[in-house]
Design goal:
Blueprint (H helix, E strand, L loop, with lengths): L2 H33 L4 H34 L7 E3 L3 E2 L6 E4 L3 E2 L5 E2 L4 E4 L9 E7 L6 E10 L5 E10 L1
Antiparallel strand pairs: 1-7, 2-7, 3-8, 4-5, 6-7, 8-9
Helix pairs in contact: 1-2
Length: 166
C-alpha cells in the first residue's frame, strides 16, 4: 500500500469507528426515550458520554494526523522504542514478569511480547528495573500495567508500572 493510500485508509477507518460510536450512543438514547424512561439523570449521563466521545474523537483525529506525517515522511516503518522510568521491586533479586498487556484509557494495548523488563531477573540484592517497549504503531498515551515479582523464598509482590508513548 502506498503512503497516500495508507493515510486515506487510516482516515477512512477512523471515520467509520467514530460514526459507529456516535451511532451506538444515539441508538441507546433513542431506546430510552422511546421506552419513556428518559429523565434528567439520563440526560446528564448522556451529555457526559457525548463529551467523552467528542474528546476521544479529537484525540484520535490528532493522532491520525501525526501518523499521516510519519507515513508520508517514510519513518513509520522504523521501530519506535521507549523506556519507562526506573521502578523498584520490594523483593531484591526477584524474578520479574509482566502480568499482561500494557493498556491505556482508550482501549489500545501493547502486548507482553513488545515489552522487555531490564534486567530480569534482578541480580542478587538488586531492586531497580525498567521497561523497554517497542511502541511502533501505538497511539500517544500513557500505558499502564503490572509487573509480578517473585523471590526464591516464594514471596511475591505486584508493582504498578507505566510507560509514556509520545
Amino acid at each position: 500500500m502506498g503512503s497516500i493510500a495508507h493515510v486515506a485508509h487510516g482516515y477512512a477507518t477512523l471515520a467509520s469507528e467514530l460514526v459507529t460510536r456516535w451511532g451506538d450512543h444515539a441508538d441507546a438514547v433513542a431506546t430510552k426515550v422511546k421506552a419513556g424512561d428518559y429523565g434528567a439523570d439520563d440526560a446528564v449521563n448522556d451529555l457526559a458520554k457525548c463529551a467523552f466521545i467528542a474528546t476521544e474523537g479529537g484525540f484520535l483525529v490528532v493522532n491520525e494526523a501525526v501518523e499521516a506525517i510519519a507515513v508520508c515522511s517514510g519513518s513509520h516503518d522504523e521501530p519506535y522504542e521507549v523506556e519507562s522510568q526506573p521502578y523498584d521491586s520490594p523483593l531484591p533479586g526477584a524474578t520479574l514478569q509482566l502480568a499482561g498487556a500494557l493498556t491505556e484509557g482508550f482501549g489500545d494495548a501493547i502486548p507482553v511480547s513488545a515489552v522487555t523488563i531490564v534486567p530480569a531477573p534482578l541480580d542478587p540484592g538488586q531492586t531497580r528495573f525498567r521497561l523497554h517497549v517497542n511502541a511502533s504503531g501505538r497511539r500517544a498515551a500513557i500505558y499502564r500495567g503490572v509487573v509480578h515479582a517473585a523471590d526464591a523464598a516464594g514471596a511475591t509482590a505486584d508493582i504498578n508500572v507505566k510507560v509514556q508513548v509520545a
